[in-house]
Design brief:
Keywords: Cell shape, Cell wall biogenesis/degradation, Peptidoglycan synthesis, Transferase. This protein is mainly beta. 3% of the residues lie in helices and 34% in strands. It folds into 2 domains: 96 residues, SH3 type barrels (Roll), CATH 2.30.30; 123 residues, Beta Barrel (L,D-transpeptidase catalytic domain-like), CATH 2.40.440. The longest helix is centred in the C-terminal third of the chain and has 8 residues. The protein is globular and about 55 Å long.
């Protein structure tokens, strides 16, 4: 893990917008699969979003429900708030946070892990790790899309595997966190795509929606774990970082390529 991978204040980063997730035919948003005839639980009114904890990589949402199935792959459904929206602890429940429209210069796209009529259950990028929340779909505040990409990181094997349409399209030996600063496990997602002119170790960094369990802050930032390159090959195939996933240049080029990059919001499963 490095100071920039554990991102500092957004103002010191040269933000590079990540690729937009895939949309349905003719560019229409992808519909979430809910039964229209089922009863819909109304969302509670939230008078002032500013009073709620921000559900961002810089924030902590203490009341967020924990991910109950951290080893399962999300199905690729994604949502993006077109304006800041409240996060609830359950359908019709209490508001526990506010999800912003952007994260580190990229649009906020979060994976859907479950849905009910009028609601989606999503992964959050805030502390504590494994935070989830429910968003109401009963207004026009959410855009929807999907991704067929999936990233799986096997820490014991020091391996990153990239899938598209359930087909393996790349596998690489990578560096992961040491015993003193392990790469956190669980399911998360690609949070943003950034470039920082103050460092030379990686042309692009992909922050994830998960944080170090060792550092509460790192390099002036909130301890965000990320995927990034490294200039030497001796770091691959072994524990070699402070928690981030260090990948070879060809892996980074595939993940961030100009023609077919992995979209923001793509699920990442860390085992």
């Amino acid at each position: 893990m490095t100071g920039i991978a554990l991102v500092g204040a957004a103002g010191v980063l040269l933000a590079q917008s990540g690729p937009a997730p895939e949309r349905g035919p003719m560019g229409d948003p992808v519909e979430l699969g809910v039964e229209l005839h089922a009863p819909i639980v109304a969302a509670r009114a939230v008078p002032n979003l500013a009073e709620l904890p921000e559900a961002s990589t810089f924030g902590t949402v203490p009341a967020a429900p924990q991910d109950a199935t951290p080893d399962e792959d999300p199905d690729g459904q994604l949502v993006h708030p077109i304006r800041p929206v409240p996060v609830f602890d359950q359908p019709g429940g209490a508001a526990i946070g506010a999800l912003p429209t952007t994260q580190l210069g990229s649009d906020t796209w979060v994976p859907v892990i479950a849905d009910e009529p009028g609601w989606v259950h999503v992964l959050l990028p805030s502390r504590p790790n494994g935070s989830t929340g429910w968003l109401s779909t009963q207004d026009i505040a959410l855009d929807t899309a999907s991704t067929t990409y999936r990233i799986v990181i096997d820490r014991a094997a020091f391996r990153l595997t990239l899938y598209r349409d359930h087909q393996q399209i790349g596998v690489w030996s990578v560096g992961v966190g040491t015993a003193a600063a392990p790469t956190p496990a669980g399911r998360t997602f690609v949070l943003a795509s950034i470039a920082d002119p103050k460092q030379t170790f990686s042309p692009v960094i992909l922050p994830l929606g998960i944080h170090s369990t060792t550092f509460t802050t790192y390099g002036g930032g909130p301890g965000t774990t990320g995927i990034h390159g490294w200039p030497t090959s001796d770091v691959f195939g072994r524990p070699s970082s402070d928690g981030c996933i260090r990948v070879p240049a060809d892996a980074l080029a595939t993940l961030t390529g100009a023609t077919d990059p992995v979209p923001i919001g793509t699920p990442v499963l860390i085992r």
